[in-house]
């Protein structure tokens, strides 16, 4: 039935398309095209197999010249989608082939609309995927018109689509073993390379080179697209064999390579030469299962690589040489990433082919460091050891090329080259194995050392050298790229810390590492600390992010070094929880990991008074006042970690974990916040008043992301007595401030975090009955009326904590009641039989009813609730119901006469909005003319004081009104009403239906309604219905 409706809508749509002056809405048209392109969608697959869609397109193409551009583009894009089906293609092109051919013949015309040209390219790519389409392209010669597009000034998107088509077209001919047409197409593609006799060209001016490049560059890009097609050149192919052996493409490329000096073209030529030599290897020895390669198979490749490097070095173009080396690294990785390493033995040394190419990319880094005049014999010795290690893993030709590159770099300006070098290293992301990543990391480490203003012995380097780095923008760029690359390596590779780091530490730090297992981050921590003082905010921001990532790895290292210890158990626990099915458990595990990872770094800071720890607070304080919000945000993230660590005992992390578990269950061992267990950090936070500054940022910063980070710090501070007391001394009304943010802040993410902080306060502090009552009222309002669904979920999490707290107060442990418990009311041991448990649970229900939770659940379990909020409410409700049903509580509940769900819903009162209240308050202020008149007539010398007092009274009233919750419960649901409402409903079915409804608004039928404008025509549909 639904299929019939969709067919009718399609007929209606195509009927509208051919009407005069009909213009399509691009947004809805793109949405419908994207939907039709999703072949995995069952309803699209069903429609695609029907003859209706091709019939509609055939009829519409009769009017293609008369309709608006937007309609033309939509029809041709639809044609491209349907043409992927070979049967539809044959039918449509048989009847409307002339119309389609006419469009392709005009594809190079300047009068054709750019979007329409892209649409025809989509058709070309679609039909090139099956044999019938290839046959039509060859018969009509349309492929020539398409390939000519790349010779004209077109948009980048069109040119890329042309290269993609060329590669697809040629490989399809290769699959068909159509050597005749392969030669025909290649002769057309390679014509720009053959029509110019480069052998007789001796000199070219810059203008002549540019003109020549415009002719040959498109051909080179097409060849690059052909070679870059995945998993093609590793197998024997007619196409590559013709290019390499018959046409001898490399000979032509070498000749052009020798004549052209334009850098972009030279790099492209060098890339193609390297790629074709690579492919030549697989012509004689295809990469099939079981085939093993040796160094002898890649001798020609190695010779070509080193010859091109030597050629570029002789041209004294260091940057182009680096570009070529980086490109070769990426090509070899793409081809050989899943193959065994090519290893050979020379002079008793085991050499890896892939590493030879990488080594050239590291040469500029070593030259830069060597020329940096690093102070200290130890630093020079370690650099020499690292260089010797690299040279020991290189062959003779690599070493010669490296020395040639070094000599060139020493004659040129090093800084611009090193900037390009670290840029290119960042491009190798995803193209390195772990061994190569460690080599790059080690080289970058020495660049970091160059920026360290302190030498190995803690003595400041010469002031001129430090200023030299600070005042050079290029060197700031170097540092930024280096730190970004280091961060990328740490995130994506397994860095061997002992191999990559500890061997290069100065003697004094090596001794420290021996006495502090797990502190392999110490030297890097020192360097990162210095970068956090940098003038450039990009460098400071990268340093803060790098610090967090590095400490995670250090913590993992520590766990590995402590088998059988309590930390080992913690590691196992965190690992298991990070793979838990529940996202909430995984999130908590990651939180714990982030907090624990800082411990080894903390040990180093704590052991170095006068250097890092004493300066850390000052550094965070300065960055919290930085003009850049990114830096302020990063500083607050670091403050959050420091605050979390402040109460973590290094030798008792498991006890801390148990406390977290108890806190999450609502257990309150103490009425006061936890006493800090990590004095060094706590001392820094107190001395520099960092939590108070965080509070000021939370209440006043203009950037919402920074406010959120600051609020997180306040939530963490509530766990530590000293920090919270300092905060409340300066902000005695901080709880009211948080309620104000929850009620009035315009940003949903800020309100959400305020809600989380208030939840922390509820867990960690002993709140006054008055504030607790106000907190309950605001949480009721947030759960029911906040427009941001994440705020509603945060409020429901608060109510979950309230429920768990009440259950714990009544003696429940881990979801069950023990046989006996201690009663706080009677101060005696009480036996928890069935009757006593029921009495306690009924008491809890009465409490939940009075604070409004049961009313919240009844309201949110209605059909009009957002599906994510509904799911959270169902989870909370089910948790409560399971406990009640387990102890047979529903049978003990009594109904309230006259109570109905409808009556309860009618007594949820929505207060007037803030604007109305402000307007009303403004109305109470006296008319300015009357005020002036009263001043002129007054005899009271305290007139101004009276006016000021009256003004302040109005201000106070306004502030109090503005913190009032937006929702008030005039009547609360009884436990009986709640149980009766929930017991007969299957909310899982409701959630499933809502999810289907959400999917339905993205269905084909719904998208057709959007395009047809049915919602606008249907008077029964609410015009404000935005799904």
Biggest β-sheet strands, sense, barrel: 2 strands, antiparallel
Number of helices: 54
Query: Could you tell me how far the N terminus lies from the C terminus, measured between alpha carbons in angstroms?
Result: 24 Å
Weakly predicted, low-confidence segments: 463-467, 502-522, 551-570, 583-612, 649-677, 914-926, 940-961, 1015-1027
Strand residue content = under 5%
Strand numbers in spatial order across the main sheet = 1-2
User: Helicity level, as a percent range?
Assistant: 55-70%
The counted number of beta strands is: 6
Question: So what's the overall shape?
Answer: globular
Query: For the residues shown, what is the average pLDDT?
Result: 79
| Assembly state (oligomeric) | single chain
Helix/sheet category: mainly alpha
Rg is 36 Å
